[in-house]
Amino acid sequence: MNELLLSNIRWQDVVDVTLNSYILFRLYVLFRGTTTLRVVVVIAFLWFFQRIAAYLGLIITSWAVQGVTAVAAIIIIVIFRNEIRSVLQAKNLKALLWGFPHGTIKTPVEIVVESVYEMARKRTGALIVFPAKEDLKELVQNGIAWRGRISKEMIMSIFWPDNPVHDGAAIIQGDQITDVGVILPLSNRKDIPFYYGTRHRAATGLAEITDALVIVVSEERGNVVVAKGSSIRVINRKEELTTILQEQVGVATKGADQTRNEKIKTGVAAVVSVLFIVGVWFSFPRGLESMITLEIPIEYMNRDPKTEILDTSVNVVNLNIGGSGTIIKTIRPDQVNVKLDLNKALIGRNTYTITKENIKLPPGAFLKGVNPSVVEVTLDVPITKELPVQVDWTGKLPESLILSEVKLYPEKLLIEGGSYMLKDISTIYTEKVLLDNISESGKISVKLALDPALLKIALGSKDRISIEYVVKKRLQ
Which of 380, 414, 431 is the last residue of a domain? Predict the structure, then answer.
């Protein structure tokens, strides 16, 4: 089966596999590290499992998994729509089609760290959010768009006690403070220390439901707290906070081993994408194979114009065509052609074997059988020959009568046909004339009975023969 599939690979299939492999690889590059990618991987495994179940004939299992996969695909679009939108909102086509997300604008971590510890020294309360992959728009409220370049003076002024937005959070992305005065969701955890206020609960509430990192500067204790995931801890050293922020915003110094590991992961993802799409391509003909039989007429091509086809063993063949059920259902007889090349045919009988090279099928369909597979074609050179005409009498005259004279008009005719047939023919006959009905002299008109039927009367000759006959009484 696989050999048959490989022998029917078209250039369209190569383009199809290459294009979809690249699309899958680009989706991995754009969505890696996000929850969406992990869910998509699970759905892919479900689909693969469904194909195996279908191939093994596990009807109920295949049906159930297929339903779960369809529902899961809808869930991804609904639940992760914000995350998908944020990833696909590329600034240019290059970033979407072939760029890699390691060229993002870097956050000036040192400026942020200096500002945070300066506010801690002055007991200025602050709440700063550093998003990662997940979109926060649906989780935060009442933010004011800011779009200001990061500087120590700007951060200090935002959280200055007399500033109307100082009680809310500031969101930092890249080298900009994008929003200020943002309200974060509060945590309902019971294990948070009792002395933590609203800022700490807001930081914990956002961190535990997203991949964002939140820094809290306490105005009561003058310390710096970092919330990430379910963890919330005090950071006393600037160096430690610098390292944490660098890891969050993706500018941490990468060693040679880490860079090499990332390249290896990217290469493996590319190979897996190709193998997965190839597996999908093979699964369609194998898992959903159907077959149809069509009766197709044979077209004879490139015949020498000096010759003509006198006879063929068959004029139509039955083709058994296989392929996926979807493709088979759409195939029409006019999309299938069977052609025989008579370019090298000789005068006389020629034998041909019909192969897949003689047959044109729609894309995705493949030939499984031909019946009959052998065709005989007889060719000849057409000539014109003058032949005498003879009446084909049948029956018997009454006993008292005799046929004394017969005249034909015309007595000879020009007949067209192949030289191979006409060389052994010396006379042509009329249709049968019944003697039993003749009782007196008369005149009748009859047609010719050409045998073989491939013979024909030359253009300009009559197609009927007039017969004048004389009947006399028999002498006693």
Answer: 380
